Amino acid sequence: MKKGDLEGMNFESGRGLLKSIRGDIGNNAEVQDVPSDEELELINGYTRKKFSKEDLYVFTVVLCDNDVDRDYQRFPVETLTSLEKMFVGKSGIFDHNPTAHNQTARIFSCSTKSVDGVVTATGDQYFRLEARAYIPKGRQFDDVIYAIESGIKKEVSVGCSVAFEKCSVCGEEMGKCGHKKGNIYNGKLCFGELIDPIDAYEWSFVAVPAQREAGVIKSYCQEDGRSVSMEEILKSISACEGLNLDSAQTEKLWDYIEKLKKSAADGAVYRNELKAAVRRYSAVIQPDISEKTVEKIMSGLSVRELSELKNSYEKKASGILGKCRPQLSSSKNTKEKNSNKEFKI
Ligand SMILES: [Zn+2]
User: Fold this and answer.
1) 339 Cα to the center of ligand 1, angstroms
2) Are residues 198 and 238 in the same domain?
């Protein structure tokens, strides 16, 4: 599966760090372009007139992911999850043409999904934020639908703001610790973790000329087009055949093993974080269930199941604790911390 070609630029503003991202319109065949019953219900929550399935065109947009981008920044999975709610209801604009005010698509659902078998540059499981959007079918929209289906409109420009950018090496605020993004420190790549999202903004379609599209595909091939693929090496190993590797292949195999080791370590960290969260929320929403029982339940769950449980508990706990929003309070703290620093001599 191809990952979204995400790129961006960013700048400071009154509302945290603005980040603009290049998203991708999903074009895999499994995705339905007719809404399901549930989707139709969600869509009709946004429209004045009731639409039927035949009136609507729906599609998937990959908004952002947890991989390190060209600016050496990334959204950790927690940020993607928080952004889900913020993107729902946001409209997408097609063109800078005079009738553009009518030509909008709207996101009606949004969720963070893991893509099996894909890891990020840092060796983590790859996650991405996928939105479902709709366009009403009809004269002025048919050109746009055609442009999406034919791949002419394949990319979208997405914007959001976050309160904090954390250094991946030391955990301090990026830019204040002396580490430089893109440099390697003790074998660890320095990049900014974008955390505590504040808001998501409208998005727009980017027309991609066919030529550029072809260029992108070509560079992908060149990157992987070395003499022997990892699959071939692994096939030989699993068949217990003797292996004759040259130095480039050995290096490739070693990189692969290192990535797997790191991925396993990160997986363990992520699992522990999820368990800690479930423990916390469980104490709030079901105080009569002992920690021991909760521990026993969690021990049999996969990471995905733990994540599901955590999300469900989180919703229930926030219902009990009232409408307190941890990311808002933390963004406020950050600002206060910053302004103090500015006035210190
Ligand atoms: Zn640092």
Assistant:
1) 20
2) no
State the distance from the centre of ligand 1 to the C-alpha of 184, rounded, in angstroms.
11
Report CA(192)–ligand 1 centroid distance (Å).
9
Task: Please tell me the distance between residue 165's alpha carbon and the centre of ligand 1 in angstroms.
Answer: 11
In Å, how far are 172, 173, 277, 331, 340 from 344, measured between CA atoms?
A: 18, 17, 36, 20, 6
Give residues whose Cβ lies within 5 Å of ion ligand 1: 167, 169-170, 177, 179
Q: pLDDT digit string (tens) for 197-218?
A: 998 988 887 765 433 332 222 2
What phi and psi values does residue 81 have, to the nearest 5 degrees?
-65, -40
Distance 182 CA to ligand 1 centre (A): 12
Cα–Cα distance measured from residue 265 to residue 316, given in angstroms and rounded to the nearest whole number: 30
- Tell me, in angstroms, the distance from the centre of ligand 1 to residue 194's CA: 14
- Does 147 share its domain with 28? yes
Residue span of the structural domain in which 141 resides: 8-216
43 and 149 assigned to the same domain: yes
* pTM (2 d.p.): 0.55
Query: How far is it, in rounded angstroms, from Cα 21 to Cα 64?
Result: 7
**Separation of 275 CA from ligand 1 center, angstroms?**
27
In a domain, 345, yes or no: no
58-114 per-position pLDDT tens digit: 988 888 899 998 889 999 999 999 999 999 998 887 654 545 455 578 999 999 999
Question: pLDDT under 70 in the chain at which residues?
Answer: 1-15, 27-32, 94-103, 152, 207-232, 236, 239-246, 248, 322-345
C-alpha of residue 67 to centroid of ligand 1, in Å: 19
Helices H / strands E in the chain, number of each: 9, 12
Q: Does one domain contain both 175 and 263?
A: no
Q: 331 C-alpha vs ligand 1 centroid, how far in Å?
A: 19
Other C-beta atoms within 10 Å of 243: how many? 11
